[in-house]
Every structure is written in structure tokens, then in C-alpha cells.
Specification:
With 193 residues, the protein is mainly β. It contains two helices and ten strands; from the N terminus they run H-E-E-E-E-E-E-E-E-E-H-E. It has two domains: 43 residues, no CATH class; 115 residues, no CATH class. The strands form three sheets. Strands 9-8-6-5-10 form a five-stranded mixed sheet. A three-stranded mixed sheet has the order 3-7-4, with no helix packed on it. A two-stranded antiparallel sheet has the order 1-2.
Length: 193
Amino acid sequence: MSLPVVFVGLLVLAGCQTEQTREARAPDVDVDVDPGQWPRYNIKWADVDVGTREQTVTVPVVRVEKEQRQVSLPYIDINPPGSATREERTVSIEADVPHAGYDLQIAEVRAAGDTMWVIARLTEGKESATQEVTRVGDRVVVNAPEDLNVRRVVIGERPEGVQNQQYRFVPTMAALEQQIPQGARVLYRRGTT
């Protein structure tokens, strides 16, 4: 018996019960060849039940608390000639960071063609005493044509976290300048309004 047949046999015997129903017979070797026969088996598999049940386990919990506050947000009103429909929308950028010592602020908004670039800076300040995942963010209100394409970019190092996968992170503003089309108009710059 070859090694693969023995291995397969051991696997079959480990998860089920096997009962041979016919003996093996080698072919006769003479001028008239009898084809022989393979053994036949009845296989009874183990009963397997799949479902759910209640069990107490320890799981990590991240809490993000939100509350409504009255705040002043930058407002950008874009009214290109020939534009029939515009809509007001809040454009936000958020990131999950390892502690509350981070800050995320929209630094600039630029426009090039039908694309608006929302550029935020992620900086790490003083590390807080507790290492707890926190969400930071910033937003601007834009009244613009409905078909305006919005690109969100963060200047800084990408922290771990699912939320942080939806934005492009670049290390420096100089690196981003190579990606933004030349002649892009600065619509908003933090600290100049």
C-alpha cells in the first residue's frame, strides 16, 4: 500500500466510522484480463451541529462620545458661472488616534477644475496619561455645485485604525504640492479669514 493511500485512510478513519461492504480483488493476469474491482465502503460521518450560544468573554471596547455644540466653522460659497444647482454640505475629516494628545485641523481648501482639495494637518502634541483611542476631526461648510469632486488629504503620519484608511496621508505639504494641479486656487487657509 502506498503512503498517500495510508494517509488518506487515516484521515477518513479519524473523522468517521467506516464499514467495508465488498472485498478487494486484484485483476487476474492471463491472456484474458479480468478487470478486477475496487472495494466498496459504507461511510457514516460524525454528527456535526453548528449554531450559536451565549458565552461570557472579554472583548476590547472603544467608546466615542459625541455631543452637539454650537461652533464656528469655515464657510465656503462657490458659485461658478453657468452652475444651475448647488448644495450646502459639511465636509469633514476624522481620524482615530492612540491618545487625546493629537490635533487634526483643516489647514487649506483648494480648487482645481471640478475638484476641491480639503487638506488637514495631523499633529501629535503632549501624550495624555491614558493610552485610549480617541477620534479627532475638523470640518468646513461648502456651498458648491452638486457634482464637485471632493478629495480629502491629511498631512502627517497615518495612525493605526480602520477609520484612517479612507483618506490619503502624505508626510509633508511639499509632497502634496506635487500631486495638486498647478494653478489650483486657495479658497480657504486657516488663520487668514
